[in-house]
Amino acid sequence: MTGCFAPSAGSEGGDGGKRIRVAMMQPPRSGLSPLSDDAFKLSRWSAAETLVRLDADGDPQPLLATKWTQNDRTWTFTLRKGVTFHDGTALTPRAVVRSLERAAGASPKPRILDGVRLSAKAVGDKVEITTSQTDPLVPHRLSSPQLSILAAKAYHTKAVDPVGAGTGPFVISKVNGTASAALDRYDAYWGGPAKAPGIDVKFVPDGTARAAALRSGEADIVEAVPVAQASLLEKNQITEVPMPRTNTLYLNTTSGPFRQASLRAAAREALDTEALVRGVYEGRADRADGLLGPALPWAAQLRDTAEGRAEAADPDGAKITIGTFTDRAELPEAAALLQQQLEKAGFEVELDVREYSAIESDALEGKFDAFVLSRATVLDSGDPAAYLYSDFASDGSFNISQLGDKGVDSALRAAAAAPAGEERREKVMAAEEAVLGTDAALPLLHERVVQGDAVGVVGSVKDPRERELVTRSTYIK
């Protein structure tokens, strides 16, 4: 990491403030398109904004929209006045409609719109959003960074280009492929100028290198410090927060040995998840009893043991390939330990480990018998129903298990249709129980986020949902 930031990084800005140097885990995979997971980089840099934001409890709050009302399938949003995009054009109802229509018509759709059809239109100074079915989570969905509102210039080509097109306190000024990016303060920001003059970002997939950057003073803020590196940092440099992220072993239900429910059951019985927590995560994680973890405290209160699971059969040397990726430093080690546990149970196991950008498409196409994934469970809407639908519905866009189960689909639809509140939470847990009953996904553990901050960092956000990091209030002393 030595010298990896630009010479000006961390130097004095024009007003005497210091630029914030950030080492991020994953490089952009889609040119920073908000229609991909790159959207979360835009929100963590405060470069792009959505109509709605979520508070700490997961409830929707105003952002670019100041209020909203519902009439059956139609929601009406009032826009914040005085907002401009980074190119100087004004935020208008038509601009909002343009962004939402592009997302709704994308192929593939942003995950937040899995199973949802919506249309938007400008009505005077407001925006009306109508869904094909009554949807109680429209405001939650509109908080997803994948539904960021951008200026018209972002849509001049087939690809969506957010450079200079957002509304946040920082404007993207330069992107160097998958290596780095730079952002400058946007002085015309509707909420008032940011305290820091800019952000310099370096993409560092190697976790050891990220931690070394903090120790050496090369970075001010470091994403996802590996647990093995956390003990090497000063205690006042790290923050550990239980997060809604679950490590899961997804089993391919349509091809290979795990087509048989009895062999999926054998894999379930072979796993020692406590050994993963102790040995790989050094105790900085929580053993998983389900897909939803302690970041959602109501989940454990409402969870019932999955019933009707298949009886385990003897693997008898069945050959399986487990895939995972190197971007999260613990996953290859976790996969190696799972390999040992499954081989002890009678499977013959091969590992396939690559960078995430090189393995995602194969995983989604069902080319592995099993896949170890670290998955955020409320990343998009603040509501786990969207994650469950995306990962386990027959038409889910992230269905690594290739699961197609009518009972699961029915439970997922019921959860998606339930009104926000206790009833929805009960339906969500019924859907979790249905998924676990198939053994298509074996939850391993729930992660805790370990973020590294230099001593002089003020106001960086430790966000369990990984939506915020640097805001207008973040600066370097």
TrEMBL record:
Start and end residues of each Solute-binding protein family domain: 60-397
Origin species: Streptomyces monticola
Name listed for the protein in its UniProt record: ABC transporter substrate-binding protein
